[in-house]
Amino acid sequence: MMTTRADTGSSGDGDGSGDGSGEGGVQVTVLLFAECRERSGQTETTLDLPHANTTATHILQAIAAKFPSLEPVLGTVVLAVNEEYVEKDAKLELKPSDTIALIPPISGIISESCLLPTVTLLWCDGMAWYDMTRAG
Amino acid sequence: MEDKDDGGGAPNDLVQVTEASIDEAKLLQWVRAGCTGGTSVFIGTTRDHFQGRRVKTLFYEAYKSMALKEMSKLAAQMREQWQDIYRIAIVHRIGEVPVGEASVMIVASGAHRRGAMHAVEYCIDTLKQTVPIWKKEIYDDGDATWKSNCPTCSQHAHAKHAHTSTHAHRDTAPSASS
Lengths: 136, 178
Description:
Chain B: Its EC number is 2.8.1.12. The complex is a heterodimer of chains A (136) and B (178). Chain A has 136 residues and is α+β, with helices and mostly antiparallel strands. Chain A has one domain (3-108): Roll (Ubiquitin-like (UB roll)), CATH 3.10.20.30. Chain A contains two helices and nine strands, in the order E-H-E-E-H-E-E-E-E-E-E. In chain A, strands 2-1-7-4-5 form a five-stranded mixed beta sheet, covered by helices on one side. Chain A has a two-stranded antiparallel ribbon with strand order 3-6. A two-stranded antiparallel ribbon of chain A has the order 8-9. In chain A, a hairpin with a 2-residue loop joins strand 4 (78-81) and strand 5 (84-86). Chain A is globular and about 35 Å long. In chain B, a hairpin with a 2-residue loop joins strand 3 (49-50) and strand 4. In chain B, helix 2 packs antiparallel against helix 3. The longest helix of chain B has 18 residues, at 64-81.
């Protein structure tokens, strides 16, 4: 599905400039905890994003594409980037050194602005993202 | 990355995430001084039942480095709201916490009781909303569930919460600890 990281060690998924800025893609670290860790079977992974300028919503969509087993719980997951919570619509400019964490519900943490209303299934052919949940 | 138990930071704020059992007497001793007229304490303990089911044990998991950061922020927020606080200790245990043992202890001391009492209440309510530590209830029958302390907040249709909100559902007691 997504292209794997380049052998040269440069960041990104090969369809961008590789410097992690602007229109280029970026590869970030993702930490998984609690129910997300159990469902995915991983504590830490990498995620290739087609654009460094992105939002929490898009990141969660990419995670749903990589880990379909997480899809049922991603609606209540909040993201942290470099140990700071981010709102779902906040504009992010990610760097290869950034660490994203999936934060499942702690308690009354749920904020409407931090939730996905639905998780959209996306597919990427290495050039663009296609929304598979919409017909046509 | 170094995996510290302590949050560092302000000298009169002690924040810790540890697998060791909580030394309650030591924390109480540390937080009190000649200048403190009032000391308030909250201890969260693993309870042996939840909604009619017998709880065998609780298991806590943390995003440790972020949890320590959030606990330090929380201590700063307590001081901002109650200026006569002297010392604050926030200690959360992770890993298995058997029935009857403490999972979290919050202590605050201050010149007067009112600030210390309110600060501790604010602290536990906010901690359960903002500090990335998760709890899994393991029952006698072998079943286990990751708990959200406030199930009503998991519903989309529920009232809005912000990460900085101090609102908490205290009346439903929906898990085998406070």
